[in-house]
Amino acid sequence: MEKRETWGSKLGFILASAGSAIGIGAIWKLPYVAATAGGGSFFILFLLLTVFIVLPVLISEFIIGRSSKADAITAYKKLAPGTKWNWLGKMGVAGASILFSFYSVVGGWIITYLIKAFSLSLSGLSQPELLEEFGKTTANPYISILATFTFIALNVFVIRRGIVSGIEKMNKFMMPALFILFVVLIIRSLTLDGAMAGVEFFLKPDFGAITGHTVLIALGQAFFSLSVGLSVMVTYSSYLSRSVSLPQSATSVALMNLGVSLLAGLAIFPATFALDIKPDAGPGLLFVILPSIFSQLPFGTFFFIIFLILFLFAALTSSFSLLEVTVAPLMAQGTSRKKASTLTGLVIMLLAIPSALSFGVFANIHIFGLTFFDLADYLVSNLLLPIGALLISIFVGFRMPRKLLLEEFQAGSKISYKIFIIWLFLIKFIAPIGILFVFLYATGILK
């Protein structure tokens, strides 16, 4: 069995964890959700709910991982031997595998569009033509499969290299680059005529627009933005030394996620408002609306390429963690990292085929009224993530010894006992209630 690795530095761990949380869905979804739920008032709600509900669960995953020094499945076996809690880890591994399979399809689209942008094949196309191009691209089985497999192969290449030489090294490059690219796009976006209307909409709160529905939407966005619930952060924190403060690291990750959400809004809203386009197209925003926006700007192709590179970095830093959480249990059984990474990558490729073909060959195949791609998305986002986060809150709040929780919470810092008590109250009572509301709302039980 290979010697268990550790992160090379605290910064490397924070950047990797933040990269795991900051995905393409969060970048394109937050502006859209904010646009339909009150703009600035929504963002304030999003911030508060992230701090009081999502952050406590993130700290909990960190505690489970570092205290056990084990993968997602073995961690629960160590902390609750002789119980069925290890099924929580198994559910996390299964959920991460499913999420990675359909996430890779979108990652493949980004790679495809990068090639199209470099070849200038999108230049001068109108929105209807771009929409038709997007439909043709996603429906082409050869392009979809090859691009999806390429994205997965990039992940396998990095994960095979290990924690320090692979994940940490790439995140130390990609995360700063992501922020720099955002700044470039924000500067260009803010210099457009009429851009301030978009900034005002995004940042000026309209508390009169807040309803119970808005709160639930903000809570769901805050919850899913950090992707807690699949024990991904359990795996990442299991490689962490006790000299690092878990609450401080989790706070840094949450702040970086909030920062990227803010940057996403400042990059997208001014441009869409300036050109009289509303950011409500979901995936189409990236592959249809934005190309048409950039085509109207000087050096538009250059800025669109920057945007696609940014999204590719965000996609990769998230997917690294999804693959790692599935590789770690195999390594715990004695399989080498390189072999485990390759085998898992091949399995994910097979698992991704139905989702990759959901927009073409399998477009007319539906299960419960959903395509394979939508079914995988629904299964993870609406069921496995909230259920996993709820069970993690219960496990940490009521199953783990209080003494162990306090030791892990205070290790590497001088955080007071009062802060620990506040966190414990949030994780035992406030977070489970919030997660339950998200689950009921996401499944349509609560409307």
From TrEMBL:
<protein>
    <recommendedName>
        <fullName>Transporter</fullName>
    </recommendedName>
</protein>
<keyword id="KW-1133">Transmembrane helix</keyword>
<dbReference type="GO" id="GO:0016020">
    <property type="term" value="C:membrane"/>
</dbReference>
<feature type="transmembrane region" description="Helical">
    <location>
        <begin position="139"/>
        <end position="159"/>
    </location>
</feature>
<feature type="transmembrane region" description="Helical">
    <location>
        <begin position="379"/>
        <end position="398"/>
    </location>
</feature>
<dbReference type="Pfam" id="PF00209">
    <property type="entry name" value="SNF"/>
</dbReference>
<keyword id="KW-0813">Transport</keyword>
<feature type="transmembrane region" description="Helical">
    <location>
        <begin position="255"/>
        <end position="277"/>
    </location>
</feature>
<dbReference type="InterPro" id="IPR047218">
    <property type="entry name" value="YocR/YhdH-like"/>
</dbReference>
<keyword id="KW-0472">Membrane</keyword>
<dbReference type="InterPro" id="IPR000175">
    <property type="entry name" value="Na/ntran_symport"/>
</dbReference>
<feature type="transmembrane region" description="Helical">
    <location>
        <begin position="297"/>
        <end position="323"/>
    </location>
</feature>
<feature type="transmembrane region" description="Helical">
    <location>
        <begin position="210"/>
        <end position="234"/>
    </location>
</feature>
<feature type="transmembrane region" description="Helical">
    <location>
        <begin position="171"/>
        <end position="190"/>
    </location>
</feature>
<keyword id="KW-0812">Transmembrane</keyword>
<feature type="transmembrane region" description="Helical">
    <location>
        <begin position="343"/>
        <end position="367"/>
    </location>
</feature>
<feature type="transmembrane region" description="Helical">
    <location>
        <begin position="42"/>
        <end position="64"/>
    </location>
</feature>
<feature type="transmembrane region" description="Helical">
    <location>
        <begin position="85"/>
        <end position="115"/>
    </location>
</feature>
<feature type="transmembrane region" description="Helical">
    <location>
        <begin position="12"/>
        <end position="30"/>
    </location>
</feature>
<feature type="transmembrane region" description="Helical">
    <location>
        <begin position="419"/>
        <end position="442"/>
    </location>
</feature>
<dbReference type="InterPro" id="IPR037272">
    <property type="entry name" value="SNS_sf"/>
</dbReference>
